[in-house]
């Protein structure tokens, strides 16, 4: 027996129990409730503490979201708390040291805040857009957005442009809601569930709970995905599909439904704009726009129908009319018109299953069957539920009809440069089958549905961005036409990321993936200070990682950095922190207050609005300070109007005080939290600030659920009582119905401008054809931009990443428990493809894209379609970060696919001499990071020798020199190749484990 096992053997073989389970544990124990943040689901948790140390985390059975369920990540929060990667004090880059070397010196919070205050005060007084604030997957965008707006900079966004903005934009521009926080599949009543482009992703525990019930109840689950992992593993059928081709499949499905007449014609006529008349007159200034109803009839919403009985145009929703859904007509003055659905039919006339089969790899026969299965579930298997409701026209309905066909989709559709139109196609498919806010279909979550598009507007030009003045508009808005773009007077982008410019007009979540590149290049202008919160933009939150890291280090001719001042706030020693000039230590989620607010991205359920909070269960480690506190402090110091009284004194003493007392308008009664409002805490949703609101949340499992009465739970786009209620709550400014936009006249406005048929703002010549092409008011499929620009014979494989079930982004691959599940990543390759290249299971291989190459290990997998290779996201680390030993396997055999992905398209993408443009969706700016094409080649095998291997033979590539370790103000574990944690050790030994 090896010496290693002798002590263990003694321990387990002496007959003594390790502990007596019936004896109460020693020390002071307590259980506190709060909200998990090991992923973005936000489950309720109970944290068990002994002598002030976290000993155990379990799901909270009283919480509506997870009902007591906890996942591996959630339980492993204990290890995040004790991570040696924690940052413990403010740090400043050592004078004379180079960015990226990681050489820091400690400074006090006073000094850190004073440095920031001085710099930001000067920029605000001179040119506020010189300050840019970009954040990662935080859950405080209502606060960070408010800070940016009050500061007066348009240069603000969170991670959405890099994540799944296409999902939000494609759906919200169609029916006013979207998946995940804003809505989702009603699996309780669904009979067929189709999941597309989703691995183990958003809405983790709730999805698992719902799926298990759905399967037990006999529901059929079909997964369409290039890779069969995560949820797909329990699907009844896996339909493999080539990445970036989902739009073709969805179009073929719509084609089939229209061809066979198997769609919900009544729903389409009355709840969508499918019956509304459009001018079809190429060359006319109003071509492709809806014919206005001149009668002024209130119910028409300004639109017209063609009455199939009288064969005349009538105001939309005219009593007794039978709206035509097909055909072309002429108005009395000869104007050629057609209902929108007719144009959809014509647009998709050639999108046959045979056409889609050649693109997607899914057989035409299967596509036909799938269309019929969907129609059968939605149209034939529904039932009438005795739920009375009143529509916006005042018509009373005694029942709601269920549509038991549910969909869920996410990044697999979104993260392509053709994602917006793909998701438009999905939204139209869901709408034609009548599944929107129907039992068993897609259901909204408050405060959704919103207008199509929502009423929020961004600044439009330099007149809206002025020194010492809040921004005129929200930093991120929802444009309705070219008039809403954010442009300088010469038509160039107003924002550093070029969101809302002609390059990406509907970039409703910004383009954080282009911020560093644009700022480095000074295009559209240089900036002074970039503050990054909780985003690893020097590693897994960047495309083109190697170059981006160099950009952060690059200096101009005068020897100063091209991005002059870089502030990073994070709780952990991520790869990004090495580049900071000023590094601010954030707290862990167990050490702070947080609000998952209805003003932001709440955790609402189908049956009503839900918000929740985190309350600290532990004091902050050492000098860590919540970023929210930093923002409220800075806002007070800078005198931002929403944060100060009329006499300039500070309004809020800290973040909890801000959350309780902030109101969206004086006396509105609407604040960040909707529960226990009113002075005595008796009001829900609206009411005066309640000084005891935090305590009341803490006493009530940290969650507030306002159950809607049953008549307000369905058909909410058109439900009179719900529309009134939503307006009353401030969720919408109006109570008008939200008509589904099968045809998007918003897109047509941009197209008309690009064709020179709309007065006002015009795109630059280099972008005219691009805008006219991509702003098609009806969905169309074509290959992602990068595919079209790549020699596919040289790079035949699509390469994608997925998030593993046990880890969320970069946070968890440092976690001592979770890294035992995934300590490294490999490239998953279909065995037939690998064998063709002579690559055996476990061999090293080169993955080469047009932009670079990465060395990794191959793993055979039958669960990937042959044209795709994939790996887990963000497990590979740079050596020397995250508190891991420099030789930890994450850095040695783990690898990062981002090195192969480019943030800009090839130089000729816009035409010779026309400059570079982001590798993103031309409509929304969604990063096309699933568009990269690669080839794989065998890499040299390690030499056959008994001697220790040379490092290279067992290393992934590229490798980077490790940084200096950051100074710590609290004792931390030595860097170990395997992190260890012994519960209670710190209290026994008086030090950090
Ligand atoms: S699903 Fe996410 S929020 Fe819920 S317990 Fe797991 S890690 Fe925590």
UniProtKB/TrEMBL annotation:
Compositionally skewed regions (Basic and acidic residues) per UniProt: 452-467
GO molecular-function terms, A-Z: 4 iron, 4 sulfur cluster binding; metal ion binding; molybdopterin cofactor binding; trimethylamine-N-oxide reductase (cytochrome c) activity
According to the UniProt record, one GO cellular component term is:
cell envelope
Required co-factor?
[4Fe-4S] cluster
Domain 4Fe-4S Mo/W bis-MGD-type, first and last residues per copy: 28-85
Q: Recorded E.C. number(s)?
A: 1.7.2.3
Which stretches does UniProt call biased (Pro residues)? 960-969
**Region ranges (Disordered):** 447-476, 941-976
The protein's matches in PROSITE patterns, at most eight in alphabetical order, are given as: 4FE4S_MOW_BIS_MGD (PS51669)
Keywords from the UniProt entry = 4Fe-4S, Iron, Iron-sulfur, Metal-binding, Oxidoreductase
- Tell me the superkingdom of the source: Bacteria
* Enzyme class per UniProt: oxidoreductase
Q: Which SUPFAM superfamilies match?
A: ADC-like (SSF50692), Formate dehydrogenase/DMSO reductase, domains 1-3 (SSF53706)
**Where is this chain's protein located in or outside the cell?**
Cell envelope
Q: Which InterPro entries match?
A: Asp_de-COase-like_dom_sf (IPR009010), MoPterin_dinucl-bd_dom (IPR006657), Mopterin_OxRdtase (IPR006656), Mopterin_OxRdtase_4Fe-4S_dom (IPR006963)
Instruction: Return the similarity comment.
Output: Belongs to the prokaryotic molybdopterin-containing oxidoreductase family.
Tell me the protein's name: Molybdopterin oxidoreductase
Q: Which organism is it from?
A: Thiomonas arsenitoxydans (strain DSM 22701 / CIP 110005 / 3As)
